[in-house]
Amino acid sequence: MRAFRMKRFVFMLLAVFLVATIVPAAAFAAYSTSGAVEVRLKTNSTSVTINGKQSTVLTAPFEKSGTTMVPLSVITKAFGAKLKLQDNKIITLTYNDKTVVVTIGSKTVKVNGKDQTVAVAPVIIKSTTMVPVRVIVEAFGAKIGRDKKTNEIVVTGALAQSGSGNSGGSTNIDPDYGKTKVGDSYLGWTMNYPPGLVLANQSDDGTFVIWGNTTSQSSVIVSTEKVTDVLSSDEIRDKITTSWLGDDEVVIDKRTITVNGLNFEKMVTRTTKRGMLFEYRAVQKGETLYYVMGGVAGSEKTALDPYQSLLDSFVPSFDKANKAVKDITKVVDGLMSINDKDFGLSLKLPAGWYRDSDSTNPSFVSENGYFSFSISSVQGQDTAEQWLARRQQLVHEDFLSNYIRNEKTSSITLKDGNALVLSYDFSYDQKTWYTANEVLLIVGNYRYAIDFNYDSKTGAQGEALFKSTMATIDIDTAYVQANYGQIEDDMDNVDRTNLITKTSSKYGYSINLPAYWLGVDTDFNQESVTYVDNFGHMIIQAIEDTDAATVSRAVQQSLQKEGLTVSGNTSFYVGNATVIKYSVEDVSSEGLPTTEIFYFVQSKGNTLMFMFGVNEANATPSALDRIDSVVKSIKFS
Q1: Residues 553, 546: contact at Cβ < 8 Å?
Q2: pLDDT average, residue stretch 495-501
Q3: 3-class DSSP assignment, residue 409
Q4: Quick one: which of 199, 255, 249 has its CA closest to 222?
Q5: Sheet with 635-636, side-by-side order of all strands
């Protein structure tokens, strides 16, 4: 499933997304023609006045521990400060040559790189980011006081100057000012510029775009999806329902509409919990399904009326000759530019690759390829050559020799230095082969691991893509050196001989497991326990009041009925207990050949059944010995 196919909850995250957006000061120029700024507000009041113009905020300012907390949007609107977001919680404000960094939940504020402590940490309330006003505006050179007559808090200062340094309170004019439409030349769509909304978030490949306004809780989304067949009206409606509708949405309008000569499937929903209305439209053109959607706060369907002309303006085409259209495409010459600031990573990948949202590191996948990037600390006097040797040893420990081929080591020049490369082909079934390239780079105190895999059948094309992608990689090693601490490499540092003892008081036994195995069901006093590693699993099942021989026969008969051949039937002793063992060759749900090994041992009238599954390609002598040693470590109390 595509990583960007977001559910309707993205609208509720709009407040977080918007913090990441650089809001042009031109949008707020109406507040001041002279460059002077005056903000008046009261605690516990949602009314805020900026240069005499009154507006309403979603969450009222409040006072806590002597600190006045105000909506962040009040500061940005008044002063034209720019914002950036890191990790959805670190907010950087830029005002002229001043920089203020606040972190949600932290009482430490950085002002031009120096730490200051505030009494109350920034917090998000009702989707509004609330910040301590004094430390921020004073960093901007503004003054803060109180009007004793009105009991208003008054902030006075100046509007941010433009990036060119012009004086006189000039504003940062949007270079796209005058554009009346927005679109994507690669994905092929155009619509009118969303009025009063700012671009809040856009996926790496541009297939998901959201504009929004936190004050009015209004949002507009354009998204695209590749389809292989011509979809019927019902199929398109089903895609809207399954891909976008939230659990609390009730459909109040569903029909086919004709706009600009095209038939759109339209659905309107009302939420039962969030006080929102949404309108979804979808139309297919060729192999692309286009979605355009709007969301507003309200309960009456008429709340969506102001967005009808905007939604009606959407067309699944792009006219490059139309100078009134702002092109926001992320794909240029077939490549999408990716900039992951949290990891200091920039690169280009072909369109069609998408981010793996489940990965904690930058990872991208395509139909035939995989890319991942990770950072770890250099340990002692470790070298790239020693690092590569350990990675190479791990490959041989994890794969049988006939499941690896074309192994070689080489070097490659990246923008940030010379890296070593471990390349090899691997397979899980000796039918489908993949080419792995493990690129290892050390700069300063940090190691950078880049994994680039592709389907071996792509041959020279895959190799060319690997090399061209490596040529685009640019790592901000200075940023990593300045902002990262000690990071251990879980894979490189793992000691597979390290054991951990687990005990079951209910069934009266203890057992030693490899410490690196990941526990899924870990309560040993329950009937079932499950652990997994990269290439297999272990399940311990307790069968009460039944002897081991009976359970063993029943399981064996069941396996044989499924057409599986039981082999290696043997027994041995662990202490005074007899252990029955046999195995079968099976095929996993992914179609990969696997080895399933069963052990049965009796204790206090109960039977413990151990079931180990490992990919046939990974059933190395060390892996099988590790499994055997787990069972042989059992001790009964």
Answers
A1: no
A2: 91
A3: strand
A4: 199
A5: 499-504, 509-514, 635-636
DSSP secondary structure code for residue 490 in this structure: T
* Widest Cα–Cα separation across the chain: 93
What would the pLDDT profile of 523-545 be if each residue is shown by its tens digit? 999 999 999 988 889 999 999 99
pLDDT tens track for 331-385: 999 999 998 888 999 999 999 898 887 788 999 999 889 999 999 999 999 999 9
DSSP character string of 179-194: --EEEETTTTEEEE--
Q: What's the confidence (pLDDT) of residue 637?
A: 82
What band does 127 get if pLDDT is binned at 50, 70 and 90? low
Alpha carbon of 304 to those of 198, 298, 496: distances in Å?
Answer: 18, 9, 60
How far apart CA 454 and CA 458 sit, in angstroms, is 8
The CA distance from 134 to 41, in Å, is 13
d(CA 353, CA 348) in angstroms, rounded, equals: 10
Query: Distance (Å, rounded) from C-alpha 375 to C-alpha 154?
Result: 47
Residue 595's beta-bridge partner residues?
Answer: 585, 614
Residues 88-100 have pLDDT tens digits of 578 888 888 888 9
Q: Which strand ranges, in their side-by-side order, compose the sheet holding 566-574?
A: 518-521, 528-533, 536-543, 606-615, 593-603, 577-587, 566-574
Strand, helix or coil at 343? helix
Distance CA 517, CA 30 (A): 61
Q: How much is the pLDDT for 14?
A: 36
Alpha-carbon distance of 167 to 188, in angstroms, equals: 41
Do residues 425 and 435 make contact, with C-beta atoms less than 8 angstroms apart?
Answer: yes
CA 204, 92, 76, 120 dihedral sign is positive
- Listed in order, strand segments (DSSP E) in 176-237 are 181-184, 189-192, 198-202, 208-213, 218-226
